[in-house]
């Protein structure tokens, strides 16, 4: 038996769109969805069809025009939502309804104002009603991490008996901690019916900055599917970032021993597209795709990276599709880094020219925190020009 495969369920177009201030129209959703297909996600949650006419149209459009991927739509456990979701997804190559209802006492009492039994009945009735209308039925117990574990398992078992093949454990409010969340996944795994044929999914939020670690802990505990968004965008502090979960699994495959269908070389361009479309600038120190993620500033680090990248880089920028050298030049940069930079920029200077250029570079760096490629180009061109006229002067003299 080979390594276990982790299914990547991308919800950039649904939970990601719940980022404050973000609104994707039909064309934008389609554009991002296409990119997600190239990236290799298994499921795209395109939206919440019953939420608005605009979103209904967008989900329908994505479902009708996308190949090679399962398209999911979110739905409350009410008939009208299920009907609407069916209308939006009926022409998809492969459709999945994502039914959800809250199961924690705090949500039941103050939000839905119904009892546990009533919630359970709505969940089961909805799965039964959805049966046959979609290729797959996924059921989410909203606020699962704050739900009584026995009640949670009871709900899961009844929806599984009714026909749901994917059960999702959301940490809706970002409350879980990694070990505890892993234990919850194990508890569910050990107590659900038909484990062999049921996919266990997790959906983590980042309110305490733990969406990615909680997702990874769940994978370690046997979760089959992770729900993620590109760049971690989403409601409040966002969701687990696809690129972080995937690169952790990749970089530490010795530890996780799982595989996935993501083409990591598409990560950088996908993140760029989504941050552009969402109008969200990524923090410079963002893991994996932040502007500084592969920049080395300290001279000793730069020296190490030039001799062997593995000294300070656990991943290669090329792995996520970045092609520049990303060596940031500043006053702490040594001669080795400078020479590599020249080489990467295509300059081939004599020893003397490098000496002069390096001196100038140091002068510039004293007054500027980051010396960019343009600055270096100017310095080099100036040096070449001067040394040429010097040589020409010699010839004439
Ligand atoms: Zn969510």
Automatic annotation (TrEMBL):
Regions that span the bilayer: none
Q: Which UniProt keywords apply?
A: Acyltransferase, Amino-acid biosynthesis, Branched-chain amino acid biosynthesis, Leucine biosynthesis, Manganese, Transferase
Task: Select a single GO molecular function from the record's annotations and give it.
Answer: 2-isopropylmalate synthase activity
**Pyruvate carboxyltransferase domain mapped to chain residues:** 6-268
**A Pfam family assignment:** HMGL-like
Q: What is its EC number?
A: 2.3.3.13
Which pathway does the protein contribute to? Amino-acid biosynthesis; L-leucine biosynthesis; L-leucine from 3-methyl-2-oxobutanoate: step 1/4
GO BP terms = L-leucine biosynthetic process
Protein name per UniProt: 2-isopropylmalate synthase
Q: Which organism is it from?
A: Thermoanaerobacterium xylanolyticum (strain ATCC 49914 / DSM 7097 / LX-11)
